[in-house]
Amino acid sequence: MSVIAHLTDVHLIESDARRSGGFGAAARRGFLNIGRPVDDGARRLSFAAALGRAMALGFDHLVVTGDLTEEGTVEQFEAVAEVLDEAGVDPARVTLVPGNHDVYARADAWGDALAGPLRLYARTSAPGSMVELSDLVIAPVSTTRAQRWWRSAGEVSSPERRSIGIAVQIAARRGVAAVIAQHHPPTRVHRAAWHWFDGLLDHAAMRPVLRAVESTYVLHGHLHERRDDRFEGEANPHIFGAAAVMIEQGGALRRYRVEGAELAPVEAEGAHRG
Ligand SMILES: [Fe+2]
Ligand SMILES: [Fe+2]
Predict the structure, then answer these.
(1) Could you tell me which of 117, 73, 101 has the C-alpha nearest to residue 8?
(2) From residue 260, how far is each of 1, 31, 174, 176, 268 by CA, in Å?
């Protein structure tokens, strides 16, 4: 039996002292944060509290499903690395994936982060890589695409789709669960126009990859709410979303038990807010 811990949507920002950018950056940050306070100290504390709770409860592997930062600047990825390091988590037991916010500064910001501030996490987090545990296979997936900061859609590249297919087949051969960690939910959850702004554009192409084998599960973020969803026509949930760490702090944590190729949420923790 293995336990997966799941956090998402940290939206870290750098401290005032390290902020750069001028009016354009200030306007972008104002738009991206409509309705929520921009406080770097509070967001660091939220992430630290969530990591602390995950570590106290224990896990075999932790996935953080994107929007790690507000805009994907080097300073913000450095802040992510600092909080992870201060929490004392073993990088070999952490998989990070990028969200739409993590590439607003530059389209290649995620690759640069994995070669720079987050290099200790590259082996378990690089798109196309795979983490093999005794009970499961984890495949980190990037749903990021080059787009302006007023759009928040996602997309998976075809080479990456092929590597997810390989991870799923390896898991099936081993008789274990495949866990796909990605930022955007893998199905259409919005009406058409809003889906173009905010949804996973190629969800239809992802479906055969994700449903080739029954014991494939998707952990995601982006919606900032805790959800258990089914693929269309299926009886059991295979899609699990977590609330945003930025908003719920330690209460955003989800944990899942993986046993006999099945993944199920550990529900007793749902009521906690901290
Ligand atoms: Fe987010
Ligand atoms: Fe997002």
Answers:
(1) 101
(2) 8, 45, 11, 7, 21
Q: How confident is the model at residue 38 (pLDDT cuts 50, 70, 90)?
A: low
Coil, strand or helix at 183: coil
Helices (H), the chain: 22-32, 40-57, 74-87, 109-115, 122-125, 158-174, 192-198, 203-210, 245-248
pTM of the model: 0.92
Contact indicator for 219, 65 with CB cutoff of 8 Å: yes
Q: What percent of the chain has pLDDT over 90?
A: 81
**Ligand 2 centre distance from Cα of residue 1 (Å):** 31
Ligand sitting nearest the alpha carbon of 100: 2
How close is the Cα of 189 to the center of ligand 1, in Å?
15
Report how far residue 124's alpha carbon sits from residue 98's, in angstroms, rounded to the nearest whole number: 13
- Cα-to-centroid distance, 152 and ligand 1 (Å): 9
Rounded Cα distance, 241 and 184, in Å = 9
- Could you list which residues have their CB under 5 Å from ion ligand 2? 67, 99-100, 222
Q: pLDDT digit string (tens) for 141-182?
A: 999 999 998 999 999 998 999 999 999 999 999 999 999 999
Report the separation in Å between the CA atom of 56 and the middle of ligand 1, taken as the mean of its atom positions: 25
Give distance in angstroms: CA of 223 to centre of ligand 2.
7
| CATH numeric code, 2-269 | 3.60.21.10
